[in-house]
Every structure is written in structure tokens, then in C-alpha cells.
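Okay, can you check this protein?
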Amino acid sequence: MIQTKIPQKGWLIVFIILLCLGRSYGQNITIKISGIRSEKGQIILNVFKNSKDYENEKVSKKLIFDKKAISNDLLIINCDLDPGTYGITLIDDENKNGELNKNLIGIPKEGFGFSNFYMEKMKKPVFDDFKITIKNPNNKITIKVKYM
């Protein structure tokens, strides 16, 4: 068996490289969600990478959070995303069935929201309305929940 020894300086270089690589991936995201009407159920965040995925409802990442930490209709959560451009949608899944419930004519019965965008009109927003860019170690996003 052949053994190779890495000089002490070599270990330091390897450690620095690994440290730098670790910082280039998953960025910490703080999401401030306001307007939540009850502590029942869960919050679902659907992360979309681009407009086409959003239109086709192809979720890149689904994050589910318990609503037990709500304080005065406000929930602050933390998660990690790789650097890039995303659109995040929110569902206040009050009955925990994993989807946004709608009435017979398609109007949502549960709360919903979009990253850094508050829907004022009845028209579903396009991806560019709520896309965000993750590039810093500490990113802040706000989502205001809307109920119909």
C-alpha cells in the first residue's frame, strides 16, 4: 500500500477551499410572512426557478412549515436556497391537505401569497411580478397573505 503525506500547508489550503465552496452554495433566507388569520394548518412555500416552470406548476422545491410560531398574525421562517433567481408562492394550507382549496368557480378558500409582491387585482401574477434574486448570505423576503 502506498501512502502519501500531505504537508501541513496542504491541509490548510484544502480547508480554505472547502470553506469557500461551502459559502458559494445554500444562502440563508429569512422570510417574513404577515396577515396569517389562524394557527390552524401549515404554510407551504413553492419555489419556482423560472416563468415556464411557474406556468406549468413545476415546483423546484417545496418547503412546509408549522404555524405554531405565529405571533400577532406574523411568522418568520428561515430556509436555504442556492444563489439564483426564483419565484416563491405561499399557501396557507389550513386543512393540511397539501394544496390550495378553491370554491366551485375557482376562487381560493385558503390564503395565498407571493415573494415580495401583494396581489391587488384578481388576475394571477406573472413570474416577473414576484421573482427574487438570491445572491447574498442573508436575504430577506416578505410575503403578505391574501384571503378572498
